Amino acid sequence: MSLKVLYFAGLREAVGVSAENIDLPAGIATVGELRKFLGVRHEALTTAKNLRAAVNQKMVGHDAPVAEGDEVAFFPPVTGG
Amino acid sequence: MSLKVLYFAGLREAVGVSAENIDLPAGIATVGELRKFLGVRHEALTTAKNLRAAVNQKMVGHDAPVAEGDEVAFFPPVTGG
Amino acid sequence: MSEVSVQTADFDVGVEIEALSSGDVGAGAVASFVGLVRADKLAEGQAGEGVTAMTLEHYPGMTESALAGIVVEARRRWDLRRVRVIHRVGRLLPGERIVFVGVASSHRGDAFAACEFIMDYLKTQAPFWKKEETPDGGRWVDARESDDVAARRWEAVPGGKAT
Amino acid sequence: MSEVSVQTADFDVGVEIEALSSGDVGAGAVASFVGLVRADKLAEGQAGEGVTAMTLEHYPGMTESALAGIVVEARRRWDLRRVRVIHRVGRLLPGERIVFVGVASSHRGDAFAACEFIMDYLKTQAPFWKKEETPDGGRWVDARESDDVAARRWEAVPGGKAT
Questions:
Q1: In what helix (H) or strand (E) does residue B52 lie, and over which residues does it extend?
Q2: Each residue of D77-115: pLDDT tens digit?
């Protein structure tokens, strides 16, 4: 399964990458599992507190499913306005 | 006791006067008593519903006292804004 | 500039809002309200009576002090920076501005609450009266029960500045 | 005109508010909010670190759809006429405008509620992030618990348009 992953704000800086295309092994079906998998190469994904996620530009919980071709984003709590 | 009395909006039109100086007989001590006294010459003061009053430009209840030299106003509920 | 104005002239909303924060390093939030003469509201009158204009009467002197008193009460309840209230009087056409309330604060919660509070109290405490013009003559607007309800709900929020 | 804009350019508050009611016979109430970069907030940072500017990062594409979704939800809850949301991105100096929310309605209660609702949801749902500049480098602004509290209080007001 292939996905596009985006990182924003402080997490983007900590990861050192703003976007990457990832080929996933079998068995990764949710945002939480994706986060754990990516945490092996990007330590900040494991250590960040209150990390938020979006799938295809909609905010979701960590139990949300991910599928082939999805755009998944990880970011800190938002601070606009 | 001498007072200045003002009327506004629909009440002013019904009374036909916007301001008048009144010499009061003894025994009139409150807004409500003043209203009753003036109602003899201005029927609209007796018949108006929900009439509001101000003494010296502060909204008050009908039990508020009136004194020599006061400016007393009667008017319908306000409709600004 | 005075906090409260009662005037026949129109006002410039952009200029008023700009003035609420200009040069004030702590003004992070500006909430404002503009009330206008509604044409469809006018048309809600008796059937067949198109309303073409509205005239606002007021109680000179008391109007200004009533509005200033409402602003004092708002400042007692919330942590505010600049506040501005403008109310027009005289004859106004549909679509014309009637009232402006603008409140600057450090935080948006205080700005929103104070702005709405000032409007709710203005509607029930400030001595203005609207008269509609129709082809058959003038008609005084009745006070709305919903305005009393709106003002009363602040009685349950007596004080305690927000943090 | 689009209801939602994400842009680097500043906006004209007077023009935006005017556009919310211009030519609309039923727009009797326009509530609006302007958020600005606070200089004193910036100074609340670590001692000795004067903050000189702020940079707003966002998630292009999702930002616009998140804001549009918030407006849809506001329209579901209240009886609204025109709505406008503008949020700036990029580098901003103290005193500069960040965000504008303007809501027109027939009645002020709906306009006020929807305007504050949109701001509260924007603060917790729209993907913007602020980074402060200091002499020692950049510092990402932490999310505020009070913003989550502000957004959650609307959950108790689930629907039912005001009359």
A1: strand B52-55
A2: 999 999 999 999 999 999 999 999 999 999 999 999 999
pLDDT recorded at residue D90: 98
Strand C90-92 and strand C53-58: the pairing is: antiparallel
pLDDT 10s digits, D30-68: 999 999 998 765 445 444 456 789 999 999 999 999 999
Best residue of C10, C18, C20, C25 to probe chain D, by most D CBs closer than 10 Å: C25
Element (H or E) spanning C113, and its range? helix C108-125
Backbone dihedral angles phi then psi of residue C44, each to the nearest 5 degrees: -75, -5
Q: Using the beta-carbon criterion (under 8 Å), do D109 and C31 form an inter-chain contact?
A: no
Report whether C108 contacts C30 (CB < 8 A).
no
pTM: 0.93
Q: Which residues of chain C lie closer than 8 angstroms to D35, CB-CB?
A: 28-29, 108
SS3 content of chain D, % helix, strand, coil (to 5): 35, 30, 35
* Pairing mode of beta strands A52-55, A2-7: unpaired
Q: Which residues contact B45 (CB under 8 A, 6 or more apart)?
A: B11, B15, B35, B38, B39, B51, B74
Range in A70-74, B43-47, C36-40, D35-39 with the lowest mean pLDDT: C36-40
Write the DSSP assignment of chain A as a string of letters: -EEEEEE-HHHHHHHT-SEEEEEPPTT--BHHHHHHHHHTT-HHHHH-SS-EEEETTEEE-TT-B--TT-EEEEEPPP---
**Alpha helix positions (H), D44-142:** 62-77, 108-125
Task: Return d(Cα D123, Cα D66) in angstroms, integer.
Answer: 11
pLDDT of residue C136: 78
Low-confidence ranges of chain C (pLDDT < 50): 42-43, 45-48, 160, 162-163
Question: How far is C-alpha C74 from the chain's CA centre?
Answer: 13
Which member of D14, D27, D38 has the closest CB to residue C25?
A: D38
Where b means 16+ CB within 10 Å and e means fewer, C126-135 reads bbbbbbbbbe
